[in-house]
TrEMBL record:
SUPFAM superfamilies xrefs: Nucleic acid-binding proteins
Species of provenance: Caulochytrium protostelioides
Protein name: Uncharacterized protein
Keyword annotations: Nucleotide-binding
InterPro entries: NA-bd_OB-fold
GO MF annotations in UniProt: lysine-tRNA ligase activity; tRNA binding
GO cellular component: cytosol
Length: 101
């Protein structure tokens, strides 16, 4: 992909220094400005999610909101309003389809 003209190439040491300054500023502000939040409420593990919802047909929807945790390893777009996310964790991978409303 072509880089934006105003985007500057930063070597890894400069990036690290900039990130350290940002983290120090956030820590100095205190309150909820932590650069590394320590808590994220998860409703179920990926294993439990797969077990609970694997019977659903492709393209079906559940109205229930579920909070999962894992590592996003791939993000793809299909048009302007569709995004696909690959979430990995516990030796499993799930694909999340998100549509802008």
């Amino acid at each position: 992909k072509a880089k934006a003209q105003d985007e500057e190439e930063i070597d890894s040491s400069k990036y690290f220094e900039n990130r350290c300054r940002t983290v120090q500023k956030a820590r100095a502000q205190g309150g909820d400005a932590s650069p590394y939040p320590h808590k994220f409420d998860v409703d179920m593990s990926l294993s439990a999610y797969i077990k609970r919802y694997s019977h659903l047909a492709d393209g079906s929807r559940e109205p229930e909101l579920v909070r999962l945790a894992g590592r996003l390893q791939n993000i793809r777009s299909a048009g302007k309003s569709l995004k696909f996310y690959d979430l990995h964790g516990e030796g499993h991978k799930i694909q999340i389809l998100a549509q802008e409303e």
